[in-house]
UniProtKB/TrEMBL annotation:
Residues 54-288 form the ABC transporter domain. The chain holds residues 304 to 609 of 616 of the full protein. This is ATP-binding cassette subfamily B protein. It is found in: Cell membrane. It comes from Sphingobium xenophagum. It comes from the Bacteria.
Length: 306
């Protein structure tokens, strides 16, 4: 009898993996009608990525083949490390994150996770390995508990609450009229940008992926919320391979490597202190932002300084 049920278990697992992938895509791209343009290879394997190490090797890409957006981009994020991508608006930062999800196929070069080419693994297994904290998450029209619990099928109430505590949103949820059963989303209670981001963090904590993509907020949260969220994000990224798409400088300072992207090219790379010392583009951004921080505390964004 057990033999008979094994294929059903497998089917259940496949279903859950696909669903998880769809949830994350939806969270990242907000609109589900932006359909994936890529297909699984006929002999696609399941990605096994315990470390989540990322490698972009001479990647060239354009949404339209006539207009190349990323020109020969190469970088590596070793397992457990944090890489931050900074640069002006339109430089290609979010494009790198979309390519990592294989939302688009690249024109040439290779992208690997733990040594496996992402074009040769199933998209469902790829997306199941990546957790994303987007800058503006779309919530489901359901309870706040459901929205967090979506991170992992079958999560218990205790696990959901533990994740909410770690994301510093538990006390806020308890203050709502129906606690975890309060309906949120378009037809329910509207949460603020900072609250939605914390729900996204709690959901990601439940999912517990080896690889994390943080899309930092462009819009300024109030500085206390921002500091709290940064503390939580720093904590969860410490134990995981993390790619930060940084619109602001806050998480960049601690990154093991920063790449400065300008018009689809890496123009500088290194740690914060080295880049400041190098006195190039990054130093210029940093100094300008420092002076803006003095005049407008908590308001300066990295894109504003170009
Ligand atoms: P920002 O800091 O403003 O978010 P970014 O560095 O993340 O900018 P991308 O969103 O990666 O920049 O965009 C890089 C370039 O690709 C831009 O010139 C943009 O116009 C173009 N682009 C982005 N998305 C698409 C798309 N779906 N189709 C065509 N071109 C696109």
């Amino acid at each position: 009898l057990a033999q008979l049920f094994r294929p059903l278990d497998l089917l259940g697992m496949v279903y859950r993996t696909i669903r998880q992938g769809l949830i994350d895509m939806e969270a990242m791209y907000q609109l589900i009608d932006t359909q994936a343009e890529v297909a699984d290879a006929p002999d696609a394997t399941v990605l096994r990525a315990p470390g989540g190490a990322v490698r972009f090797d001479h990647v060239r890409f354009g949404y339209d083949p006539e207009r190349e957006i990323l020109h020969d981009v190469s970088f590596e994020v070793p397992a457990g490390h944090t890489l931050a991508i900074v640069g002006p608006s339109g430089a290609g930062k979010s494009t790198i994150a979309r390519i990592l999800f294989r939302f688009y196929d690249i024109q040439s070069g290779q992208v690997t996770i733990d040594g496996q080419d992402i074009a040769e693994v199933t998209q469902a297994s790829l997306r199941a390995a990546i957790g994303i904290v987007p800058q503006d998450m779309v919530l489901f029209n359901d309870t706040v508990g459901y929205n967090i619990g979506y991170g992992r099928e079958g999560a218990s109430q205790d696990e959901i609450e533990a994740a909410a505590k770690a994301a510093s949103i538990h006390d806020f949820i308890l203050s709502l009229p129906k606690g975890y059963d309060t309906r949120v989303g378009e037809r329910g209670l509207k949460l603020s940008g900072g609250e939605k981001q914390r729900v996204a963090i709690a959901r990601t904590l439940l999912k517990d992926p080896p690889l994390l993509v943080l899309d930092e907020a462009t819009s300024a949260l109030d500085s206390r919320t921002e500091t709290e969220i940064q503390t939580v994000l720093r904590d969860i990224s410490r134990k995981r391979t993390t790619l930060v798409v940084a619109h602001r400088l806050s998480t960049v300072v601690d990154a093991e490597e920063i790449i400065v992207l300008d018009q689809g090219r890496i123009v500088e790379r290194g740690r914060h202190a080295d880049l400041v010392r190098a006195d190039g583009l990054y130093a210029l951004m940093w100094n300008r932002q420092a002076s803006e921080r003095e005049s407008l505390p908590g308001e300066a964004g990295i894109g504003d300084v170009f």
